[in-house]
Amino acid sequence: MTEESISDVFVINPIPGSNPPVAKKKRNLPGTPGKCLLFPPISNFSEDSLIVIFVNLMTKCCLRFPHMIWVIADPEAEVIALSPKTLMATNRFLCEICGKGFQRDQNLQLHRRGHNLPWKLKQRSTKEVRKRVYVCPEKTCVHHHPSRALGDLTGIKKHFCRKHGEKKWKCDKCSKRYAVQSDWKAHSKTCGTREYKCDCGTLFSRRDSFITHRAFCDALAEETARVNAASSMHSNINHHLIGNQIGPPMAQHFPPIFKQISSNDATIDQTRCGLSLWMGQASQFHDSIPKSLQEIHQFGSVISRSIYSDLLVSTSNPPASGYHLNWVLGNKVSSSHAEELTSTSLPLNNVKENGAQLVSVPSLLSTQKLHSHQPTSANMSATALLQKAAQIGATSTDTSFHGSLGTKCSNSQIQDGNKYSGLYVSNTPPTSFGSDLENSANDISNLNQLQMQPAKRQRLQNEDSSGGQTRDFLGVGVLPICHPSSINGWT
Amino acid sequence: MKLSSAKISKESKGASPSHGGHHKNSFHSKRQSHHSILPLQPVDQLEQWSSVAVDMYNNSSSSNNNNNHHHQPQTSHTSTSRSSDYSAGGDGEPSAVGNKWASRLLKECARAISDKDSSKIHHLLWMLNELASPYGDCDQKLASYFLQALFCKATESGQRCFKTLTLVAEKSHCFDSARKLILKFQEVSPWTTFGHVAANGAILEALDGEPKLHIIDISNTLCTQWPTLLEALATRNDDTPHLKLTVVVTANIVRSVMKEISQRMEKFARLMGVPFEFNVVSGLNHLGQLTKEVLGVVEDEAVAVNCMGALRRVPVEGRAAVIGMFRSLGPKVVTVVEEEADFTSTRYDFVKCFEECLRFYTVYFEMLEESFTPTSNEKLMLERECSRGIVRVLACDDDQDSEGERERRERGSQWSERLKEAFSSVGFSNDVVDDVKALLKRYKPGWALAQPYQNETGLYLTWKEEPVVWVSAWKP
């Protein structure tokens, strides 16, 4: 499939009549994406589309939001370019009386009321608000181009700080540096609490001693794979990305991923970068795969390990060669399997029961366990891969996690369900994704705890389902818009 | 044993009348306690016992005027109070020396050897032999290992002893044991990781932005420095440079494990996604034989030289040449990590060298004692490794050494003087200092970072306020 055709698939105009009313912009609600197209049952798609969808899903490692794929097209979004000064400015709105600074004009106005000054709150404009996307002012940055714009003001601010700003915040314990205060805070909460586990079973509380051990560990030398039983996943709970099964053969294949794992806490801009990839740069997804993988890791991603492992397992992967994950996923899947992808229904219900494995993608990829699964068949069809994914997802019992996690992945642009440019995978984020690292860190830790305590998981699941989670095409989570039966339509 | 104790008490009995009043009194009091001496005594009794013997010799030798100049600090002992004897052991207070018997005995023995006072030598060696044990407490261990060196010195069998020790060590040495040892050591003590973190930080900063890196590693830590550097290279930027690591190995023990190490390093670099090349330069007798060609330095690469515990192995006279050779490689940065001890300027004075050696290894042994668990096998192995070093420094003659490698340590200030000839010092950035501080926080308390005064270079790792390791960075 050519890149052009891919983008054609993605740039689909909203189908009139299928648009839900423009919902109030609320970040923390399961968003109704508004002018978006509900991904029709798989049988309605051509093979090519399915392949593209599948490829994008897999390669972007967006298992965190295993939901229906929302194909959004918004060529009319308003592109806003703010200056670096504006982006870095905090509290630009100053009270003339007391000099207090506020981030938003609305807040300042409310404050002025306290001084008995004339104030005016801006009303929400009645006309339809054009979706705004923001570009990064840094010319060398990927997000400088409007096609790679980010949809959230806070997001672009954080991106700019992270990528191009000075790192003023420093962690005491490990002296990692951060440009954004919320990143630093989130890191400080988890710093030192992580445990790193080597393949050989040794636990480390210190990253540097873990790395050194890893380099000399016998487990590194082993080329043999071990069986990756789904039940054994739970033993990997709470383990750092790196700590999780960085088996040599797979490990070799995803240097960029590992890079990001090592970099620990998120630089959300990377995530945004990956997300913006969804925004229509289909042509670039091959290149962006490593980044998207990276972004996943930056989340401390909680991606179903089994899903990943199986997916990767099913692609032929000679250990000795220097594969790269993106090659495995991107090239293999897209090129050789494209034509084999057929419209296969995924057993969504199965996915629900799959216990979300709190293992990051790199760990998934890197685990030695993966190798044992590798049939040398390079010919496993994309359809089969999808099926496998569904099956694995089926064994997961933490659907709610997927839901909540997936929401994290989804760009906060989803919030108001307005126009978006490009493709993105939607979900109903309990917390908005890129804009709130802290929440995600909390959620991750929450998830971890939940993983540890299946009883709690059920509770959370109940809570989430009452909150109206989206359900992905793998059956995890609940799509607010999508009719349940349409989910079953996948089956 | 009873016989010998009786002998001692007899001697002390015999000697006591000839002393001055003060001594007499104290001897009497000691004598009474000595009657009940058994081989294993509480330490304070032991040290009293040893003090008696020491005093006895001092007093007898004081009558030999020709020896007086060696006993300058002790001729006063005969006329002054006992407390001055204690000062020989380095403590001014009698009450505080309960655990210093080893130190005093050893120093006395060293002096005796230097004076070639054979009866005294025999006696002290015998006493040390009775009291020492490599499995006891710090004092006993120090006594044991230094006794070995003293014995070799007295009998001029240092070289042979060293060879034997080396052979024994090589036989039991393998990759697994070496790896386990050094990783465990790094886990409980920042002795080596301090240098690693600081050097890596300096190297990364100096080589930032370079596409081709060549690090020349001459160290004694079996490449445990490099995984964290590889990880940093992989994660720092989007573009990972190519790293060529050339490891220079001279000791036979290390040579045998280099194959395994190289495999692991290569695999790990692949894991990290860092283009990597690993070379080992072995077959050299000493570092003076290194040349640019041997190291494989090519034009377009950015070179960093990492010397960790390496320069001290260069013969003293050849150090300037080796430093000059490093300079000729045109490195962007040279990192030097050494331990704070001076065996070089004292190399012609046995007693001074001995005392310095004892001081340093006392700190080291105490550090090991407190860092490891009491029954740790790794601690025992590290202590045994020290024994070879101690024998070598104290009992082997410089010119006699065929291997050409000697571990004559120098203090940071001394190394600075040498390095200043060819390089200028580079300070460690705040980030690196923060990294080091964060590292030290991860270990047991007692460790601290000391930054020297303005005119000095590098950073010091201190253990209980005593500087033990020095790290510095230099550029041409």
UniProtKB/TrEMBL annotation, chain A:
SMART domains: ZnF_C2H2. Residues 93-115 form the C2H2-type domain. This is C2H2-type domain-containing protein. Keywords: Metal-binding, Repeat, Transcription, Transcription regulation, Zinc, Zinc-finger. It comes from Gossypium arboreum (Tree cotton).
UniProtKB/TrEMBL annotation, chain B:
The keyword Heme does not apply. Residues 20-34 have a biased composition (Basic residues). Residues 58-84 have a biased composition (Low complexity). Keywords: Transcription, Transcription regulation. A motif (VHIID) lies at residues 213-217. It holds the Pfam family GRAS. It comes from the Eukaryota. Residues 182-247 are annotated as: VHIID. Residues 395-475 are annotated as: SAW. InterPro entries: TF_GRAS (IPR005202). Residues 1-36, 57-95 are annotated as: Disordered. Coiled coil: none annotated. Belongs to the GRAS family. This is Protein SHORT-ROOT-like.
